[in-house]
Amino acid sequence: MNHYGIGELARESGVTPRAIRFYEDYGLLRPLREGQRRIYRERDRTRLKLILRGKRLGFSLAEIAEILALYDEPRGEAKQLEFLLEKIAARRAELLAKRRDIEASLRDLDGVARDCRRRLQALKDGARAPARRRSRRRASR
Question: Model-level pTM greater than 0.85?
């Protein structure tokens, strides 16, 4: 059976020992103890990978905890996978809505930038007009 220290697990997963202790305090990881030393098993290593994947996908720690807890229930993995598929569908819908909002914002920004360039060009073209023409305009005002 493989065992890991907190430093080793942190280096391998690319997170800080503090983050690992936080996940432990949250109840997501349950290392063995030898005095003050934490000993992480393969199960903890796998759970940490799942936690980090869940965070990358945008799940909250509460959702991740719920997904991990389902694994230990009677229907175990099947129930966990069904629940995960529901969460994935909801997260996907959320991200697609955000994408639509971002695309609309980008179109709006492009339109405003285009209008600004046109107006700026018109101002520059007006500044290049012959001096006589400009003075006549001012006189007529």
Answer: no
